[in-house]
Amino acid sequence: MRIATLSIILGVIALAGCEDPYQPTPRPDYTIRVMPTPNGNLVAIPPSCPSWTTATTDPYDNKQLPQLGCATARNLAMMVEQPQDLVKGRDLGGSSGVTAVGSVLRYNYGQTRGLIWTGADPNQVSNTTASTPLAPSEPPPKKQPNACAS
Fold first, then answer.
1. Measured distance CA(28)–CA(62) in Å, rounded
2. What is the CB neighbour count within 10 angstroms for residue 108?
3. Helices assigned H by DSSP within 17-96
4. What is the pLDDT of residue 70?
5. Can you give the pLDDT at residue 12?
6. What is the H or E stretch that residue 114 is in?
7. What is the pLDDT of residue 95?
8. Closest CA to 54 of 19, 23, 29
9. Could you say which DSSP state residue 139 is in?
10. Helix H or strand E encompassing 34
11. Which position has the higher pLDDT, 97 or 46?
12. What ranges do the domains of the chain cover?
């Protein structure tokens, strides 16, 4: 009986020294807060990010590091033009079908516009880099049939 009691007491004492030396990995809140200012405007408050050198994590809990995602939320809060867009997005409004059709036709006729503008007059978009233009009266090039299609 004494040996059993002694072994239980020693087992409890031995297990008391087996505490986890790591704190649980923190789960910070990276919510961007949109607050009103005294003049009625809204401002986006970026979250504060934990330091990579001082934030301790438990290597055995298989969770992401607490710093991941903070820079994205912080940069978004700093870049947003109208903070109310983070609360409720704006309506897209109407769009011009002429613009959409024009771009499709330019693509079909091989008259796509490049990304580099080389002209002196910003009102002349025809001076952008482009492939050899086809005459608008010509039909678009025919697509080659797909040999794999059945």
1. 16
2. 13
3. 70-79, 84-87
4. 87
5. 64
6. strand 113-117
7. 79
8. 23
9. P
10. strand 33-36
11. 46
12. 22-86
Q: How many CB atoms within 10 Å of residue 44? A: 21
Place of tokens 């091989």: 110
The mean pLDDT of the chain is: 76
Query: What average pLDDT does this structure show over 44-72?
Result: 80
**78, 70 Cβ separation under 8 angstroms:** no
Helix ranges (H only) for 1-150 are 2-16, 70-79, 84-87, 97-108
Question: What are the tokens at 92?
Answer: 């897209």
Q: How confident is the model at residue 83 (pLDDT cuts 50, 70, 90)?
A: very high
- Give me the count of residues in the chain: 150
Q: Distance between CA 68 and CA 27 in Å, rounded? A: 10
Fill in the amino acid letter for 83.
P
CA atoms within 13 A on the CB side of 28: 19
* Residue 130: its H or E element: strand 128-130
